[in-house]
Amino acid sequence: MKTLIIIPSQTRGFDSTYSSFKKHILDKNSNIDIGLFVSDESDLSIIPNYKHHFTLPEYSDHREGLIHELNYLNIDIPTSLTEKKKLDNYQISTIIHIYYRLFILRMLREHHLIDTYNFFMINRSDLMHTQDIDLSSLNHNKVYLPNGEQWGGLPDRFAIIPKKHIQNWLNIYDEMFFKDLSQIYGSISKYGPEYMTKHNKEKHNIIIKYIPYTFYCVRKPEDKTRWSSGIYIESIRLYVKYPSEYKLVTKNLSLY
Q1: Strands 52-56 vs 32-39: parallel, antiparallel or unpaired
Q2: Are strands 32-39 and 238-240 parallel, antiparallel or unpaired?
């Protein structure tokens, strides 16, 4: 069984998290390749031994990134993406999330990688892992997600997807969410990546299997962040970007 680990959007934070990534994933599993699907401004020096590298420009207006990917798919561009209304940071982050999923799908198709791998793991570069993740006995009919941080939908920071579902899983765009960008907001009652992920899962009738939440997002004090600045944890000398996520991980660690 062969797995492609997908690092989406950026490599920021990987110099802090790579040792945990290597210890709990790379060293515990065989037949793994790493693919970088990132901004052309990403630092590649902090990631040894990656096999694939695909880039997008760092758009000054991230609506352009989504328009670009929709054009490749021959999908009509909604008016909301051509208007020049100011976007807040959550709307920008959501748009980035969507167009990078579409970009990853496009690269997998163009470079004939879908049939090369049995599973695809989406792993943010800023995820600090605390427990081993075993890829040896996965079910080829199920998508694996961490059990937490759902925010009215499904968690979007980590996933293990079988080849059977990878194209539907990545093809997350739905025009209904982009008719009015003001409906994209960081609230359970509004649209966001988690809600869109759940909608996409239900649309394609994908079966989910939950795994323990054993990783959390971090940043160095000098790193910039678009959304959550987080809290500083002295023991690791890093900021934890989502305190609720960190609390969930520490709770799960007490069970081991």
Answers
A1: parallel
A2: unpaired
